Amino acid sequence: MAPSFDDGNSLFNFVVRDGNGVKGMVDSGLSTVPQAYMQPPIERIDKDRARKHGHPPIDLSKLGGPEHDEVAKQIVRAAENLGFFQVVNHGVPVDLLESLKDTAHDFFSLPAEKKAVYRDDVSPTPLVNYGTSFVPQKEKALEWKDYISMQYTNDAEALQHWPEEIRDVSLEYLRTSMSMVRKLLQVLLENLGVKPEDSMIDVLVDKKMVNMNYYPTCPNSDLTVGVGRHSDMGTLTILLQDGIGGLYVKIEDDSEFGKKGEWVEIPPVPSALVINVGDMVQVLSNGKYKSAEHRVRTTRTKSRVSIPIFTMPNATAKIAPLPEVVEKDGNTLYKEFVLADYMKNFFSNAHDGKKSLDFAKINSA
Ligand code: OGA
Ligand code: NI
């Protein structure tokens, strides 16, 4: 039986500890949002005031063709300013995108006990983790989101350990995405004056993770967030979102994309994927490419799914601004660090905008 959600402890036990998630709470019949999910006014999202990002998606089939330079320029400009862009003709079959979204809905509709076996402390494998919010133990207000996260090591381990309901489509998504990721990195690195070797790109995308996010309907969607303000910690993120919308990005500096401090929505575009720059690319580029702050609102009438692939270097990799860039810039904004240390810091704090990057900043005030 569902407990009283007015009591913080019993809510925590039901949603987080027992693995019922926000989904379980909503399914038990909720008419108002519990206190634990109410965001302070400054974090609430005023959807009527946000502008939609109007740039058309970038056509990746033109890379390597006569319009290569123009397309490369579009990618670079987006990475330098907004830190987000959308792509089409990305190599991931469009019917696979549809299956992924359906599969995510089916998975989160499973009984709680099917999902809860993958909770952090009981999961039969370190590769798979099911949870809710981001770091519920540390958050002042919880995020209205459940997720499952699958780390990729190799095909055999994925086939053995990933949940069978979602394994095959997730693996196919990863398989068909990676050549696009490599091409994008090639373009971004070349623009920095680096001739990227395959081995360098191998290092940058050594670790890969496929997540499925589930944002249940919310009775007071103005008071909650699906995901709070954060940047992604890795190299590049590939995100499949469904048609519901609600992903917002903050503009860091005035540019053709908008005014500094403004939040713009990345609107759903059928068959497109969203790409965003992660903290590692911001560091490597000595701040030229922006790992943008972003967040997700909740919706009242329909549950939303999104399926990101996170790429990042190996845990032991040493990360620092690229020497070619530092030489040209005459200064370095970030110190060298080991990826595992960065990650530990990232995952031990609640989402707080771009604060994660302070870990690497030189002279951070
Ligand atoms: C994330 C994220 C956005 C979305 O998982 O890091 O920002 O639209 N997701 O779900
Ligand atoms: Ni994100």
Automatic annotation (TrEMBL):
The keyword Iron applies. Transmembrane segments: none annotated. It holds the Pfam family DIOX_N. Its cofactor is L-ascorbate. The keyword Acetylation does not apply. GO terms for biological process: coumarin biosynthetic process. It comes from the Eukaryota. InterPro entries: DIOX_N, IPNS-like_FE2OG_OXY, IPNS-like_sf, Oxoglu/Fe-dep_dioxygenase_dom. One of its GO terms (molecular function) is dioxygenase activity. Keywords: Dioxygenase, Iron, Metal-binding, Oxidoreductase. Belongs to the iron/ascorbate-dependent oxidoreductase family. Residues 196-313 form the Fe2OG dioxygenase domain. PROSITE patterns: FE2OG_OXY. PANTHER family: FERULOYL COA ORTHO-HYDROXYLASE 2-LIKE (PTHR10209:SF753), OXIDOREDUCTASE, 2OG-FE II OXYGENASE FAMILY PROTEIN (PTHR10209). Gene3D superfamilies: B-lactam Antibiotic, Isopenicillin N Synthase, Chain. This is Fe2OG dioxygenase domain-containing protein.
